[in-house]
Amino acid sequence: MSQACDITIIGGGILGLATAMALTERYPRARLRILDKEPKIAAHQTGHNSGVIHSGIYYKPGSLKAKLCVEGARLMKAFCTEHGIHWEPCGKLIVATDHNEIGRLQNIYERGQANGLSGLKILEAEEVRGLEPHCQAVRAIVVPETGIVDYIQVAGKMGELLEKRGVEIMTGAGVTAIRRPSGQGLVLETPRGAVATRFLVNCAGLYSDEVARLMGIQPEVRIIPFRGEYYMLRPDRRSLVRNLIYPVPDPEFPFLGVHFTRTVHGDVEAGPNAVLAFAREGYTLGTIRPGEVLGMLGYRGFWSMAARYWKMGTYEMYRSASKAAFVRSLQKLVPDIRAADIARGGAGVRAQAVAPTGALVDDFKISVTEGAVHVVNAPSPAATASLAIGRHIAGLARDTFGEAL
User: Fold this and answer.
1) Do 254 and 288 have their domain in common?
2) Do 13 and 162 have their domain in common?
3) Which residues touch 212 (CB under 8 Å, ≥6 apart)?
4) Do 327 and 264 belong to one domain?
5) φ, ψ (nearest 5 deg) of residue 206
């Protein structure tokens, strides 16, 4: 068995790493360990991220997501600047393509103001063309606080800093069982042997609910994976998009809709479709894990969700199968886009918590049990907010087991 540590974090994505950063700052003498089941850190949601530093404009004022996204964006930019990680304050446009969307666009603008964003401005059609000449809009919001970065680089730097602080990062160490022996503390079984720890922080992302079950806890929600599929603009057509162009999102669905995103590496992504995945790490249509599918189908919240969103889900699947349908969605924002201008790109999987009622949990959700803190729901913009979420978790740890450290 490995030497016992004070706090073990399950999950080596950007959220687990940022949490470890915050814990080492709050408890510099504590012994920390990070466990990740993959051969390297940041292999899943972090490693498949589009790289946007979100501003926090969309989220309900006063919500955890609004607070932590706005704070996290500021911390992320400062972290990147301090450590020489390239990022760009490119800004973005949120675009109303017809007059029926203007009311929702105004609501988003008011949310951004309530969340404390600076520099927001409503643009009329002619002003939009001045920023994005190929974009079609009747009105738009310019959001200057949005940026872009490579989150794999960010995670790599966090890993370097943590190792210098004495944090042990164990890869290839997926947790298969959790025991609570007599006395205090936990024993985590992994392929690399048993790991003893006094306290646990569950940042397992796509498997956060499964980790909770290993502790004997019945989570109040279940993670349902949604695959986000992207196309890439061909290099000779990247000039159609200067920065980031987003539609007005559907308020009933916690996804931002098909949009254009420039990356710090000079690419332009278009997407995503948001389709149900048949595995928690189902980055391709052909990736199917029968046990995970059966678990999903056996959850009543899945069927309630399907009944609530079947029309939207069916359309997302159709658009996933039809490039022509996908192009039509893009043409609402940039009419000059043609099918020949885009090629299939990568995909990511969103760990979406679904309640038994079928509701898609929108806000970040972090809960506390005996000796543990669990990140129950942290989809986008969790990468943006990661440093702020880490500090929030460190605060919960202080309240939960701080005196023992």
Assistant:
1) yes
2) yes
3) 202, 218, 219, 369, 374, 376
4) yes
5) -60, -20
Q: Write 247-252 long-range contacts (CB < 8 A, 24+).
A: 247/94, 247/95, 247/97, 247/332, 247/333, 248/94, 248/95, 248/96, 248/97, 248/101, 248/104, 248/105, 248/108, 249/58, 250/312, 251/104
Q: Would you say how long the chain is, in residues? A: 405
83 and 176, same domain (yes or no): yes
pTM (global) more than 0.90: yes
Indicate whether 199 pLDDT > 70.
yes
- The answer to whether the beta carbons of residues 72 and 393 sit under 8 Å apart is no
For the segment 70-105, what is each residue's pLDDT rounded down to a tens digit?
A: 999 999 999 999 999 999 999 999 999 999 999 999
Over the chain, what is the mean pLDDT?
A: 93
* Per-residue confidence (pLDDT) for residue 127, from 0 to 100: 95
Last residue of a domain, one of 126, 144, 162: 144
Indicate if 203 and 129 belong to the same structural domain: no
Please state, for a pLDDT cut of 70, what percent of the chain lies above it: 97
Condensed to tens digits (0 to 9), the pLDDT of residues 134-185 reads: 999 999 999 999 999 999 999 999 999 999 999 999 999 999 999 988 767 8
**pLDDT for residue 222:** 95
Q: How many domains does the chain have?
A: 3
In a shared domain, residues 334 and 236: yes
In terms of Cα–Cα distance, which of 60, 89, 95 is closest to 73? 89
DSSP 365: E
The answer on 314 and 253 residing in a single domain is: yes
Residue 117 tokens read as 């964003």
DSSP 113: H
The Cα diameter of the chain in Å comes to: 70
Q: Are residues 350 and 382 in the same domain?
A: no
CB-CB contact of 40 with 34 (8 Å): no
The boundaries of the domain holding residue 114 are 92-144
